[in-house]
Amino acid sequence: GENVEQHPSTLSVQEGDSAVIKCTYSDSASNYFPWYKQELGKGPQLIIDIRSNVGEKKDQRIAVTLNKTAKHFSLHITETQPEDSAVYFCAASSPYKLSFGAGTTVTVRA
Amino acid sequence: GAVVSQHPSWVICKSGTSVKIECRSLDFQATTMFWYRQFPKQSLMLMATSNEGSKATYEQGVEKDKFLINHASLTLSTLTVTSAHPEDSSFYICSAREVTSGYNEQFFGPGTRLTVL
Question: Any idea what DSSP says for residue B53?
Fold first, then answer.
């Protein structure tokens, strides 16, 4: 089955700096790569996703890149704000199953 | 759009009782719904996949007689934890996939915190 590895497990950044989270996946059949933000006690919220036919996608301060050859994808958050503090999960998906990374706890220091 | 609700948001029950959790897609039809379990400081673990009108498919190691799933309509799936025990205490999260999406785009509910005493 699919194996998704996510790094780092924790990330502390100064407000205004950028944050980068990296994930690798194992199944070349995976074709959809969402990123979720989860705040304490809440369900995951989709923040951005990318499909296998696209190399990069941006939405305001958030961007995701995908390298299918290397089987890795990354989340970039620019101009971080305190409200960006949360746990972020990457996932890789075949048409039928999402496999999640272990999560990254991001702390934005004011 | 793409809103998924869960009810209740939290529940406390005594050991040996059964608890039902509802998952609803509010503004779209979901042929497929998923149930996940999340322990503190861990990732989401898929428990089962349910398709409307058919039996759920359970992941390896998940007891189907303990975690009963019913997906009776395109907007409602229920998870019943039968004879709950303290080790079943966890955060249960459902997600739903839109009918028209060719990709596995899942929208998650807010989760249900189950505590078994």
Answer: T
How many beta-carbon pairs under 8 angstroms link A with B? 51
**Mean pLDDT calculated for residue range B107-113:** 96
pLDDT in tens, B41-56: 999 999 999 988 888 9
Please state the separation of Cα A39 from the chain's center in Å.
14
Residues of A in contact with B103 (CB under 8 A): 31-32, 51, 93, 95
Cα-to-chain-centroid distance, residue B101:
20
A46, A60, A88, B78, B109 from A63: Cα distances, Å: 13, 8, 14, 35, 24
Q: Which of the residues in chain A have pLDDT under 70?
A: none
Radius of gyration, CA atoms only, chain B: 13
Which of A36, A51, A100, A104 to mutate: most B Cβ within 10 Å? A100
In Å, how far is B93's CA from the nearest CA of chain A? 7
Instruction: Express as a percent the part of chain B with pLDDT over 90.
Output: 78
Cβ separation B93–A51 shorter than 8 A? no
**Contact assignment for A100 to B43 by CB distance below 8 Å:** yes
Residue B101 clears pLDDT 80, i.e. is over it: no
